[in-house]
Amino acid sequence: MSKHRIAIPETGEDFLCDEHQSVLEGMVRLGRRGIPAGCRGGGCGICKIEVVDGNYKPEVMSRQHVTEDDQHHGRVLACRIRPQGDLVVRVIGKMNKAWTLPKR
């Protein structure tokens, strides 16, 4: 299994994520308090991120939370993508608040 580095420049954090797990699973492993993981199946939209750089394999996402335009511009649900290489992401969904608070 290949592991890929996922970087979040705004916080200076990065983590390794297996290509068979979702980016959200890797984010949760960072141990930040207050990360709302939601449904983990693409239905709630809480984990919306923007992939700034890198390749990923998308899975089906609710169009209620991710439009075709969103997806075309790399705005996806972290629970519904699997990294295919190193990624640079920006947290833009409802869990953004947890990422902008100071680490505890």
Please describe what this structure looks like.
This protein has 104 residues and is of the alpha+beta class. The chain has a single domain (3-100), classed as Beta-grasp domain (Ubiquitin-like (UB roll)), CATH 3.10.20. 16% of the residues lie in helices and 31% in strands. It is built from three helices and seven strands; from the N terminus they run ββαββαβββα. The strands form two sheets. The chain has a five-stranded mixed beta sheet with strand order 2-1-7-3-5. It is globular and about 30 Å long. The termini are far apart.
Features of this protein?
104 residues; alpha+beta; Ubiquitin-like (UB roll); two-stranded antiparallel sheet; globular
Strand order of the largest sheet: 2-1-7-3-5
Percent of residues in β-strands: 25-35%
Poorly predicted regions: none
Secondary-structure element pattern, one letter each: EEHEEHEEEH
- Total domain modules: 1
CATH superfamily, please?
A: Beta-grasp domain
Task: Give the structure's gist in a few sentences.
The protein has 104 residues and is α+β, with helices and mostly antiparallel strands.
List the helices and strands and how they pair.
Elements: E1 3-8, E2 13-18, H1 23-29, E3 48-53, E4 56-58, H2 68-72, E5 75-77, E6 81-83, E7 87-91, H3 96-100
